[in-house]
Amino acid sequence: MKVAIVGAGLAGMTAALALARAGRQVTVFEAEPLAGGLASGFRDERWAWPLERFYHHIFQTDTAIINLAQSIGCADHLFFRSQITAQWWQGCGYDLNGPLQVLRFPALPLVDRVRFGAVAFYLKYVTRNWQRLEQSTAAAWTARYAGQQVYTTLWRPLLEGKFGPYADEVNMAWLWARLRARSFKLGYFQGGFQAFCERLLAAIRQQGVEVCLNCPISHVQQHADGGWTVQMPGQGTASFDQLLVTGAPSLLQRLVPQLPPAYLGQLAQLRSMGAVVVTLALTQPLTGGLYWINMPKDQFPYLALVEHTNFIEAQHYGGDHLIYLGDYLEPEHEFFTLSKEQLLARFLPSLQRVNPAFSPHWVRASWLHRERYAQPIVPVGHSRNIPPLRTPLPGLYWASMSQVYPWDRGTNFAVEIGQRVAGKMLGEPSSP
């Protein structure tokens, strides 16, 4: 049986590996010049390692991607390290990476710090009933159980930063999943996630998978017998028995407008935030050892400041100190149309508030990366909104970050959904 997969991100390549190992003849089509999707990287000529376009790490609980690394023989390239994740408050970044650090956080009275810790412990280690949690908004639930001051100081800025005008709609299962999956140590691959993607690409090619890079798909057509024809601009067509589309709902809508109206309606109702990330190569360190700082959006023009080289040594990047300035924004936000120079003019002045010694002369180089489909919005009762992996059209499947719910988007769950949709395609029983 011949299978076409649109998209060589982690979900598409993981599905390709499982299908090829089961004896399917698989072809993967990728519009970009390299594999990896949102986990792909870029490289400066000074660097030994590439860097992710959008900051990445994994957790010790991310068993799907850890097991995949073992399966393709690169588990020895994965390592975990402690780092400092901080909350910005009154001109400083405060470490919140453990119970003792939370108890020392001066923005809250001691009783609220204890309450915050107790609620976080309950969510992470006790309850597994996310179905009940999704019936309440994260705003209402955290204000009720953690207290109004904890909500206002810690949870509200996170929700507003991630979801902007949709902060009050997001359900509590989303926050539960973030805490549940988190580990105190973070994982990374030697050579970055692009190196891992290249190993996975090599593994699927060794299984006989044909991978066509720089090969966008213009449209697809269903055969009368249920098969599918894939049209490649300027490169002709190819026929397949099954078709898997990975990526945004809008991609599936564009490629297969003949889907039944009910399914298309489900796709149209799926909303998401986009991501805008400016990456800086600095000649000096910026944050004094902090890896990740959650920034208040009413004070800074971005949500997260990540000093990557406080996690991974600067020696891999020619001595550059690498900073991500990232934000989740509505796809219509002006940051998706402003130039890199215009964004730098807005972002750079704020760095002097992080480090008074900062000077724009520290910036050796800068890059801008944007993606309009980066963070699904998950309202109350969202599990009812998710279209199944098997579409109503015979032989057509869809797998995306919109379907990993209640878990949050990320490389681990891209791997997991790739394995899950492959099981569906092979006729194996699995959850929808």
Automatic annotation (TrEMBL):
PANTHER family: AMINE OXIDASE, PROTOPORPHYRINOGEN OXIDASE. Residues 1-18 form the signal peptide. SUPFAM superfamilies: FAD/NAD(P)-binding domain. Residues 10-425 form the Amine oxidase domain. This is NAD(P)/FAD-dependent oxidoreductase. The keyword Repeat does not apply. It comes from Candidatus Viridilinea halotolerans. Keywords: Signal. One of its GO terms (molecular function) is oxidoreductase activity. It comes from the Bacteria.
